[in-house]
Amino acid sequence: MLPMLKRFLIGRPLKSTELGEQRLNKTKALAILSSDALSSVAYGPEQILIVLITVGMTAFWYSIPIAIGVLLLLTALILSYRQIIYAYPHGGGAYVVSKNNLGMLPGLIAGGSLLVDYVLTVAVSVSAGTDAITSAFPTLHGHNVGIAIAFVIFLTVLNLRGVTESASILAYPVYLFVLALFILIAVGLYNIATGEIPPTLHSPIGTPVAGISLFILLRAFASGSSALTGVEAISNAIPNFKDPSPVNASKTLMAMGGLLALLFSGIVYLAYYYGVIPSADVTVISQIAEMTFGRNYMYFFIQGTTALILILAANTGYSAFPLLAVNLAKDKFIPRMFLVRGDRLGYSNGIIILGIASILLIISFQAETEHLIPLYALGVFIPFTLSQTGMMLKWIRQKPKGWMPKFIINTIGAFISFIVSLIFFLTKFTQVWSILLFLPFIIWLFHRIRKHYEAVGDQLRLTTCEPSSPIEGNVIIVPVAGLTHVVENSLNYAKALSADQILAVYVSFERDDEKKFEEKWKKWQPDIRLVTLHSHYRSIINPLTKFVDTVEHKAKEANYQVTVIIPQFIPKKGWHNILHNQSSLLIRAFLLYRRNVVVTTVPYHLKK
Amino acid sequence: MLPMLKRFLIGRPLKSTELGEQRLNKTKALAILSSDALSSVAYGPEQILIVLITVGMTAFWYSIPIAIGVLLLLTALILSYRQIIYAYPHGGGAYVVSKNNLGMLPGLIAGGSLLVDYVLTVAVSVSAGTDAITSAFPTLHGHNVGIAIAFVIFLTVLNLRGVTESASILAYPVYLFVLALFILIAVGLYNIATGEIPPTLHSPIGTPVAGISLFILLRAFASGSSALTGVEAISNAIPNFKDPSPVNASKTLMAMGGLLALLFSGIVYLAYYYGVIPSADVTVISQIAEMTFGRNYMYFFIQGTTALILILAANTGYSAFPLLAVNLAKDKFIPRMFLVRGDRLGYSNGIIILGIASILLIISFQAETEHLIPLYALGVFIPFTLSQTGMMLKWIRQKPKGWMPKFIINTIGAFISFIVSLIFFLTKFTQVWSILLFLPFIIWLFHRIRKHYEAVGDQLRLTTCEPSSPIEGNVIIVPVAGLTHVVENSLNYAKALSADQILAVYVSFERDDEKKFEEKWKKWQPDIRLVTLHSHYRSIINPLTKFVDTVEHKAKEANYQVTVIIPQFIPKKGWHNILHNQSSLLIRAFLLYRRNVVVTTVPYHLKK
């Protein structure tokens, strides 16, 4: 049943040698890796207006200079990341770059931030996409959480199938979204040029605004920079590109930067000229689309592709999170299971954990994105800052030919990212303070895990010359519950092992029972010694463990090994197991984990 | 953590020898076992009026003759059950009586009905009690399901602590409820006698009613007989009484019958005289109390004790369900786990399962009792009929001295119970049809389980002389993952077993890896043969299982036993386990359940 369902959802297993085929060409990579960044224009411009409206509608003209600032920031980031792609063709992004150039702690800060940020990517994007859908179809309001969770499950299954197959499905919506926004911007600009949109809707640039302050402008700028989340995705995923991967990745990055700049400027300008007021019910893009086309098929086309790209933006998280987890797991900071490739060659554990974490986040925030976006953006700009700073040090240390322009580019990138991070802390502290608790905690956890792996490695390595103690003999303990074929089977096995001593142990709950059993036993197995233990509290494990302890203590002195042989009958059908008390399983787990005895299970397979 | 919480909630474990102390004296037994029956007066009279109101308020006078019919039914049942108590002093109630006298199938019909009925007892009583609370405090409306679930959890914990301790807590509310209703009835009758309540509120007995029919009267009678649910509880729980248990149980039964008759008659009469109209929001008792006392402290005392006894009525289910489950499990019709006494000597598994099932029922019916009561009452009257019929046959077969009056009493009981069951089917088919699907299903399940247990018993019994095949030798397979102390440890153990052949098996995912490993192995363990398997799909289990199959096939021909020795390192702390892929656990489970090999786990305990 379950394996069949798995095959149906995920597809046939792939051989390890099929890995090469899973790589991405540029067109598919642009779709798969830039949906996060491109979809940000669906909420970035709106975030600027949400801050400015606190002063008044006349302040909306400030969105134009703020947008120019965001575009400068974008240019700096794109150029900086282009250099990272060539310097680190094996990918890894902020974690690897920071670790290699700045040291372990900055690397872990970047890695920890990003790990959580990818969960936020999924939660924020899917929730925003769901909002877009419920905006267009108000009857669906109130089902946001359910819809969002369904999308996360859908994406998780898609990614478990493998990255190329996902890309084929995901490419169309991304390109349709770009097309839709280009049409919207073009028609919007045409309407403005022909004067169909009256210029009275907006306040002219330079209008004096009462109550505006540098604090508010910085806050609006920081909010607007949330449109840049996701630009780092490509630099993290270079190994997913077809060869030559750095060249292809770099070209894809530039294409993405260009598209993002065009769409962002277009939407900000239209929103400003149309005088759009941000509202809790209708998104800014929805308002622009409605004012441009009315509620006709073009409106639904734009809303539909916006919703789709937002939901698929979450997919960037699915590409990036498992790869980052692999890098962290290779360095032993997170559990080794993230290194295992699943049936379809994707890092299944990372994909599944990401899905679960996002669903939990969606449930606890009830699919409301407003409170998550600042944390999300900050979680991106901290690693931005660290990786650019790392690049600066790299250039200074290595000083390759023509390093000076590269150094300047990364310095600008680092400086701006740092300033943006600082602005977030200063202007949105109430929404981002939790990162100050979370980052130290996760870094402490990273170190605990690493310490454990190192301790285990030390103890297992043969070079640590702790001599293995020789085994001089074997004492066998067989817990028995009755005179049955199962017990007979186990006793035969014990005899065949030519042990030095075999002890059968019977735990009785009632005194009368003991003597009867001992008599029967003497007749049945006269040559195997039976020990009877009485249990006051109707527990088998407690008296048995005490007995095993006593035997082990004596055996140890003579370098004897104690083996507990557990007779277990295996029912023919799985559901039969609930009809039998699983004492043998409990005994095994208890002895193995708490005592230094070998536990042997002798199965007796029932035939009906 | 968890064990401490368990100790706090449930108390210290009790020795098996402390069992005697857990028995009940008559006062406590009356409280614990009759709360179900007595609490039924909180909804029984109301059920009659709900049917009569469909004709009109003038029909309310029919509640008096109907109540007389219910009282006759009660008398017959009490007398019949009194005979059952003496005839079956070890308890068991309808299941045992029907099984012994009528045969297995009627026994199982009775047992199956009751098993489900006790779940309904808990669900209905707790929900009705919650209703009483939310009637008095309307602000709590809308939280019914949550409150009801909290009460079920509370009762479950109480019963896991053990039956006597529960009784001490439960005795007071039951007696307070009886006191409260007696005061209510007394003051009500006084008011009627002094003429404070005008006789104009009710229609005189004998008033002709348009539209009344036998169907409606029978329906009202059946509804009213739901006030008798719970009278069988005492006869099921005789072993819980102090010695001489049958005498004590019989006295308790008579006391309960008397109290029930008085309370039921009183409430029906007051409801009739006051002209109370049943309403969805306020219970009949609440209306009577309000009209008698106003909304003062006496009103809240009556509502409070009513709510308490209703919730505690659920406790009857907790006393009866585990005992019935023990009887069914002894006959191998339900899983053996119901036979195990927990730390506090209660049958914990029955208690826990009952709690979970009731919560599920409360959730799926949203704590609305109206639809459950008919099913609940029918589930009681089917076993009533069967056990009384069984008693009839018993008297006819055994013919003890003076059997004739006993036979007549049971015959009347059987006949009336049968008629009531029939009336339920005829007049409330839409609410009780599901029992016609459910009963055959559960009886089929009972037989499946019994068949399995019998098959297992046959196969395990030594008398079935299938000769155990001798073990001529031992082939040992050791799956190895690297050159470590863990593997060294396991190999030392394997060597100490003086096996005929030891095979180390290494599963590699990459071709390059294989040769390197083989070379290292030759240097390290030159005298143990290494087999290298290549896994295309990154699975360890598949190639390993195939290999084990091949070895087992060869070994079988020579009567050799195959043992798989799994090296496993045990981390020092529990949480460390999530940091290591649990391949050894998977391998063990897979081999043990699917193949006929002995699986030995050699632990290597890490020290840090």
Automatic annotation (TrEMBL), chains A, B:
<feature type="transmembrane region" description="Helical">
    <location>
        <begin position="252"/>
        <end position="277"/>
    </location>
</feature>
<dbReference type="Pfam" id="PF13520">
    <property type="entry name" value="AA_permease_2"/>
</dbReference>
<protein>
    <submittedName>
        <fullName>Amino acid permease</fullName>
    </submittedName>
</protein>
<feature type="transmembrane region" description="Helical">
    <location>
        <begin position="373"/>
        <end position="395"/>
    </location>
</feature>
<feature type="transmembrane region" description="Helical">
    <location>
        <begin position="407"/>
        <end position="426"/>
    </location>
</feature>
<keyword id="KW-0472">Membrane</keyword>
<keyword id="KW-0812">Transmembrane</keyword>
<feature type="transmembrane region" description="Helical">
    <location>
        <begin position="205"/>
        <end position="231"/>
    </location>
</feature>
<dbReference type="InterPro" id="IPR053153">
    <property type="entry name" value="APC_K+_Transporter"/>
</dbReference>
<keyword id="KW-1133">Transmembrane helix</keyword>
<feature type="transmembrane region" description="Helical">
    <location>
        <begin position="102"/>
        <end position="128"/>
    </location>
</feature>
<dbReference type="GO" id="GO:0022857">
    <property type="term" value="F:transmembrane transporter activity"/>
</dbReference>
<feature type="transmembrane region" description="Helical">
    <location>
        <begin position="140"/>
        <end position="160"/>
    </location>
</feature>
<dbReference type="GO" id="GO:0016020">
    <property type="term" value="C:membrane"/>
</dbReference>
<feature type="transmembrane region" description="Helical">
    <location>
        <begin position="297"/>
        <end position="326"/>
    </location>
</feature>
<dbReference type="InterPro" id="IPR002293">
    <property type="entry name" value="AA/rel_permease1"/>
</dbReference>
<feature type="transmembrane region" description="Helical">
    <location>
        <begin position="432"/>
        <end position="449"/>
    </location>
</feature>
<feature type="transmembrane region" description="Helical">
    <location>
        <begin position="347"/>
        <end position="367"/>
    </location>
</feature>
<feature type="transmembrane region" description="Helical">
    <location>
        <begin position="48"/>
        <end position="81"/>
    </location>
</feature>
<feature type="transmembrane region" description="Helical">
    <location>
        <begin position="172"/>
        <end position="193"/>
    </location>
</feature>
